[in-house]
Design a protein that fits this description.
The complex is a heterotrimer. Chain A has helices at about 1-20, 60-70, 85-95, 110-115, 120-125, 135-140, 170-175, 190-200, 235-250, 265-270, 285-290, 325-340, 340-350, 355-360, 370-380, 390-395, 395-405, 410-435; strands spanning about 45-50, 75-80, 105, 150, 150-155, 155, 160-170, 280, 295-300, 315, 320, 350-355. Chain A is an alpha+beta fold. Chain A is globular. Chain B is an all-alpha fold. Chain B has a two-stranded antiparallel sheet with strand order 1-2. In chain B, helix 3 (about 65-95) packs antiparallel against helix 10 (about 200-230), helix 8 packs across helix 10 (about 200-230) and helix 12 (about 250-260) runs antiparallel to helix 13 (about 265-290). Helices cover about 65% and strands about 0% of the residues of chain C. Chain C has helices at about 25-60, 85-90, 95-125, 130-145, 145-160, 170, 180-190, 195-200, 205-220, 220-235, 240-245, 255-260, 270-295, 295-300. In chain C, helix 1 (about 25-60) runs antiparallel to helix 13, helix 2 (about 85-90) packs across helix 13 and helix 10 packs antiparallel against helix 13 (about 270-295). Classes of the chains: A alpha+beta, B mainly alpha, C mainly alpha. Chains in contact: A-B, A-C, B-C. At the B-C interface, helix 1, helix 3, helix 4, helix 5 and helix 8 of B face helix 1, helix 3, helix 4, helix 5 and helix 7 of C.
């Protein structure tokens, strides 16, 4: 009994301390409250709240914040990092609570559509930014990664990332395989073929890696041009072909299953180690590969004959919330991000500036052919067919692939089985989308 | 007023006093959010803009929603596989962990470890373990002669069993519930039964098991509820939906979460949630009604007086 | 054949009265039983610990070394970068501060749960009152509502009340009962014999005294279970702190861990190191609280 009373007493004391210490709300919650809360002041201290996700690497954030604050002594940027997987939930709940920050990362048209972001066109004009040399996929109307919604610009960034395929020139040479052109890319058949030629179990080298056909096949192949029909496309001969091609690659042991080597998480590491001859990956973090001494070339992701190649293009799109109390200062920051910020990002991360003219000016390619090829490919970016909730819609596709890999069904069978499900999902997604809009 | 009547009134008052924290919380903290959730289930809500009333549309849409029915099938499959397995294994494990042998403390702690690990770390390492080609599980299976072991998370057929398997790893956490239940089985009961010549199985059947039925009821109900609500494990095992997940891992709450936070349809997701409450409540009710027949309480206030 | 259950008398020196078995044979059987049990425990423990060993191996690898190797490595053999632990706990996040923050929340939660759930559980367990059935059903039904559906309405409610940005939404609810624990305590308390109550009533004790002096002390095992589970749930809770807090000085361990994981380039070695460090408090707590799991009638025996 005494023991229990003792524990209860201690816990009580702690709890009282806890509740007492924390019952006052924090002072810097809310949209850019801080300091004096003055609007657009000349010389008035202003604090901007900026929410990001950055994993474990904060070197860019640190650098750009200190550079910006030095150049603008009256503006204080308060950066808070949230987990990437939960960023949306955090932001949406904050918006619902009226506690949204000034600066946010933008990753889809929902917020633009709902009018929650401020258009940046006036800032672009004021600052005389020349967006004509910026990567069109980001600043022109496009798919869900574009910053442009119905003609107005809502975000800008400091770099451009994309998905490309890197290949190891030395391994190609050793096997006598000619270097692929950066554009147009090779077909998946060729990809699997070359992978088979280059896979060498004995020395632990894989020719290529891809988790499932959608790792390189454009999403368009699954749907009609208007994105409303999947039946007949998903299980049409062209796509079934793609299933067969990749499945054969697995069967022949030319490709590692994604359990052995997850191309997205480990591809670059394996490539930098010389254990992977071709890798479809983010065209970022190239110094890791270059410092390892890999002589690499770049080509676009393998695409079937007759299909226009597609690859993801993105930026660290930063936008200003319409609820911000300091819109002018926030726009200042974005202007800085997309001009000076590019250089800073290049210095900390080695990424490609969003403004390709800037990339030229700083000689990002630095004479490395792999880099030059990557830049060239970027100019071919195109938007993707729009399908609301696309990843949910194609859920049966993943099961179909699982059946094919496990040898339980043939590609045609599996896709025939999946197609009606995908079509149903698609119809429902469209009706929900139209209802919401 | 009879003395009994007075006593009963005193007891009634005492009861409500003891219940007051929960009752106050129910009315003060939970009532409004619950009603709000119900109302949201009749609305269109994307969290960032105000909700719009829809009437019964969400519920109507549910019945035609293919993924909704898929998620029910997947969750039921998980329930049928996991509930009996977890109950039996938990019980067996707790009996072993209840033994008073040297070092049992350390073993109990070690068995408890998996329950402490959570999130991405667990998912990542189990994906490695369940690797169809080089993972430890399949290597072990091949070593005992199974040539074509299941492809676990890669195979639509074995996806749900994979989740069941990973949950089994964490069973040590739940075993402590049984452990606490075992504490009130008086040694004298065992001795009495032994004097009549009972062997270990009979001791288990006539003493341990009956005395454990209150705990078993708890575990049965909470396991069922857990199975209805499986989320964390499935969420991280399916890579948290960064890309897509197949139908085979679309559990009820995963689908709900997707609709709520990925597709911006919180109202629709709320309707799904309330459908779940209805379905689960029906099952729970049946179990409770029949529990009187097999659960033995040392002390049941209803029985007394 | 392995026996499944032995009463607590296993360790007593005199054999339990089993008619007709000579002492020597009994002892040999006991030894065989013990050996089997130990072997089983060690084998299963190995299975349990394998994944943890893998995590440790991963945590000790240097940055550029692939963490997911074709044949998983279950024990560290080549790499021993212990400094990964120091790195991730100091450089990547203010781990100590996050720990303290989390401890505050967790401790308050345990306190709240133990008090409220013991009180409410006692009522459901051992008191007869009108409405007990209905209220109990309501209790169970509240367990059925998925938190995903409540989280947003609850969030908006707490924002309205002005608790955004504080720890209050994370602490206060635990003082008002949690259905899961109330149910558990109810089941447990119903296994305590009623003779104790009767004897106490004869002695003139009121209900509070019965609760505080008789039932509660016998309930240490179930209260320990509640404390442990509350600790775990609080410690690992990510979404709660995430949506209510926006000052990174107040973040919890769960947020810190989640921040390490990105879609692009998660440093798995550091992530594993952080996760291992984060489970230490839970494990230590459990190790020390274990003794309290053993209690109840079986060790005390009936009074009077």
């Amino acid at each position: 009994m005494r023991g229990i009373r003792g524990i209860v007493g201690v816990l009580a004391a702690l709890a009282l301390v806890a509740v007492g210490c924390t019952s006052s709300p924090t002072s810097d919650s809310g949209g850019g409250g801080g300091g004096d809360g003055d609007d657009g002041g000349s010389g008035e201290q202003v604090t901007l709240d900026y929410w990001v996700f950055e994993g474990s690497d904060s070197s860019f954030s640190d650098a750009i914040l200190s550079a910006f604050e030095t150049a603008n002594p009256n503006i204080d940027v308060n950066l808070t990092a949230y987990p990437e997987n939960n960023y949306e939930v955090k932001l949406n709940t904050a918006i619902a609570a009226g506690k949204a920050p000034d600066l946010v990362l933008v990753f889809g048209p929902e917020q633009m559509r709902a009018g929650l972001l401020l258009p940046l066109d006036d800032m672009v004009q004021e600052q005389d930014l020349d967006l004509s040399t910026y990567v069109p996929a980001i600043v022109e109307p496009g798919d869900e990664f574009s910053c442009n919604w119905e003609g107005q610009l809502y975000c800008l960034g400091s770099y451009v990332g994309s998905v490309q395929m890197l290949y190891n020139k030395d391994l190609f040479d050793a096997a006598g395989i000619p270097h692929p052109e950066p554009w147009p890319p090779m077909t998946p058949d060729e990809f699997v073929d070359i992978a088979c030629q280059l896979t060498d179990e004995a020395s632990g080298v894989w020719g290529g890696a891809a988790s499932d056909p959608l790792a390189y096949v454009p999403f368009d192949m699954l749907f009609s041009a208007d994105g409303r029909t999947a039946q007949g496309y998903v299980n049409g001969p062209d796509f079934v072909d793609q299933f067969e091609t990749l499945a054969n690659g697995y069967e022949q042991g030319c490709l590692p299953t994604s359990n052995i080597l997850d191309p997205w998480e480990q591809g670059r590491d394996y490539f930098a180690n010389g254990q992977l001859a071709m890798v479809i990956t983010d065209f970022q973090d190239l110094p890791k590969v270059e410092n390892a001494g890999i002589n690499y070339g770049t080509t676009a992701v393998p695409t079937p004959e007759g299909v226009e190649p597609y690859f993801f293009v993105w930026s660290d799109s930063v936008g200003v919330m319409a609820s911000s109390e300091h819109p002018d200062e926030a726009k200042e920051f974005i202007a800085f991000l997309t001009t000076e910020g590019q250089r800073i990002r290049y210095e900390t991360n080695g990424d490609i500036p969003l403004d390709l003219a800037e990339a030229e000016a700083i000689d990002w390619a630095a004479g490395i052919s792999g880099r030059e090829e990557g830049l060239e490919i970027l100019s071919h970016a195109r938007p993707l067919v729009f399908v609301p909730t696309r990843w949910d819609v194609i859920a049966p596709y993943y099961d179909a692939w699982g059946f094919v890999i496990g040898g339980e069904k043939s590609p045609q069978e599996a896709l025939d089985e999946a197609a009606p499900g995908i079509q149903e999902n698609l119809d429902k997604a469209w009706s929900a989308w139209e209802q919401q809009g | 007023m009879t003395r009994k009547g007075l006593q009963a009134r005193k007891e009634q008052r005492a009861a409500y006093l003891f219940l007051s924290p929960w009752l106050i919380g129910l009315i003060g903290l939970w009532l409004i959010p619950i009603i709000a959730s119900l109302l949201l289930s009749f609305s269109e809500y994307d969290i960032i803009t105000p909700p719009q009333w829809l009437g019964l549309d969400n519920y109507r849409e549910l019945f035609d929603d293919r993924t909704f029915w898929v998620s029910i099938r997947v969750t039921l499959k998980y329930m049928v596989l996991s509930v009996p397995l977890y109950i039996i294994t938990g019980l067996l494990l707790s009996m072993v962990l209840n033994l008073k042998i040297r070092g049992i403390n350390m073993f109990r702690t070690l068995f408890f470890l998996p329950a402490v690990l959570s999130g991405v770390a667990v998912a990542v390492l189990w994906v490695a373990l369940l690797n169809p080609d080089v993972g430890a599980i399949n290597e072990a299976l091949r070593a005992v002669g199974i040539d074509d072991p299941p492809r676990w998370l890669d195979s639509p057929r074995w996806a749900v069993p994979s989740v069941v398997l990973v949950g089994l790893w964490g069973i040590g956490g739940g075993a402590i519930i049984y452990l606490s239940g075992l504490q009130n089985i008086s040694a004298q009961l065992y001795e009495a039964v032994e004097l009549d010549g009972a062997g270990p199985f009979q001791r288990f059947r006539y003493v341990t098991l009956p005395m454990l039925t209150p705990t078993l009821l708890f575990v049965l109900l909470t396991s069922l509820i857990d199975a209805f609500q499986v989320f964390d494990l499935a969420y991280v095992l399916s890579r948290g939906g960064t890309q897509g997940i197949g139908d085979s891992l679309t559990f009820y709450l995963i689908n709900l979460w997707d609709e709520a936070f990925q597709n911006g349809r919180y109202g629709y997701a709320s309707a799904m949630a309330w459908m779940l409450v209805l379905g689960a409540a029906a099952v729970i009710l049946v179990i409770f009604k029949t529990s009187g027949r097999w659960v033995y309480y040392e002390y049941d206030p209803e029985r007394e007086r | 054949m392995r026996t499944l259950d032995e009463p607590a008398s296993l360790e007593r020196d005199e054999p339990v009265a089993t008619p007709g078995s000579p002492g020597g044979r009994y002892r040999a059987r006991r030894l065989a039983f013990k050996v089997t049990i130990y072997a089983l425990l060690i084998a299963v423990c190995g299975f349990i610990l394998l994944p943890v060993g893998w995590m440790l191996t991963a945590a000790l690898k240097p940055d550029l070394e692939p963490v997911f190797t074709p044949t998983p490595e279950w024990f560290p053999t080549r790499w021993w970068e212990w400094k990964n632990f120091r790195r991730v706990l100091t450089e990547n996040m203010p781990f100590l501060r996050y720990m303290i923050n989390t401890m505050i929340i967790v401790t308050a939660n345990i306190f709240g749960v133990l008090i409220s759930c013991a009180l409410v559980g006692f009522a459901f367990a051992r008191l007869r009152f009108r409405g007990s059935k209905v209220l109990f059903y309501i209790l169970i039904v509240t367990m059925l509502i998925p938190w995903q559906a409540l989280i947003i309405p609850q969030f908006l409610f707490f924002v309205k009340v002005g608790w955004y940005g504080t720890y209050l939404p994370l602490i206060v609810p635990s003082f008002f009962g949690t259905a899961f624990f109330i149910f558990l305590i109810r089941q447990y308390m119903r296994t305590i014999p009623k003779d104790l109550d009767d004897a106490a009533r004869v002695d003139g004790l009121n209900y509070w005294q019965i609760f505080w002096r008789i039932i509660l002390p016998l309930s240490t095992p179930v209260l320990t279970v509640c404390a442990v589970f509350t600790f775990l749930a609080s410690w690992n809770n990510l979404l709660g702190p995430l949506i209510y807090l926006d000052d990174s000085d107040r973040f919890t361990v769960a947020i810190g861990l989640a921040n390490l994981v990105t879609r692009a380039d998660t440093p798995w070695n550091l992530t594993m190191a952080a996760n291992l460090a984060a489970i230490l408090p839970s494990v230590l707590l459990y190790f020390f609280l274990q003794k309290k799991l053993i209690g109840g009638i079986a060790s005390v025996g009936l009074k009077g």
